[in-house]
């Protein structure tokens, strides 16, 4: 793929990294506000949603699916699972396959409706094509960096 000549590239006032981090912080804040009265954090939502969409999954599979969202200093998967178990949204015990209980499915359904509204707010003013293109571009950029890191 050819790069555009430097002179023809319009550089935004702030770099990509700024907007990625800023948007992620805003999403955290918006999710927190959206789900606060349900007592559900963004990370808990991600676990609930992964279990709802993927059915029973092993702890390692869940950890792999959520790895991009877990950060240093944030809650661990075990902490989040402990909170969901305490609410009886996932069963307690040594079961190797994690799944939602009836209460967990009900909590997920209520949270999902709110998350859909949050996502609609995020996408206001964008066409489906613009969203798809944005995700594609970010995916290509991530792949480029992954390849460069692997080549070191």
SSE order and pairing:
Layout: H1 16-35, H2 42-54, E1 57-58, H3 59-66, H4 77-86, E2 97-98, H5 102-123, H6 128-151
Antiparallel strand pairs: 1-2
Q: Average pLDDT, to the nearest integer?
A: 88
Name the strands of the widest sheet in spatial order.
1-2
Point out poorly predicted stretches: none
CATH architecture of one domain: Orthogonal Bundle
Give the name of the CATH superfamily of one domain. Winged helix-like DNA-binding domain superfamily/Winged helix DNA-binding domain
Proportion of residues in helical segments? 55-70%
Helix/strand-derived class? mainly alpha
Give me the count of strands. Answer: 2
Number of helices: 6
Give the termini distance in whole angstroms: 21 Å
The SSE order reads: HHEHHEHH
Could you give a short description of this structure?
64% of the residues lie in helices and 3% in strands. With 152 residues, it is mostly helical.
Describe this entry's structure for a reader.
- It contains six helices and two strands.
- It is globular.
- The protein has helices at about 15-35, 40-55, 60-65, 75-85, 100-125, 130-150; strands spanning about 55-60, 95-100.
- The two termini are about 20 Å apart.
- It has a domain at about 35-125: Orthogonal Bundle (Arc Repressor Mutant, subunit A), CATH 1.10.10.
- Helix 1 (about 15-35) crosses helix 5 and helix 2 (about 40-55) packs across helix 5.
- The model has no long low-confidence stretch (mean pLDDT about 90).
- A two-stranded antiparallel ribbon has the order 1-2.
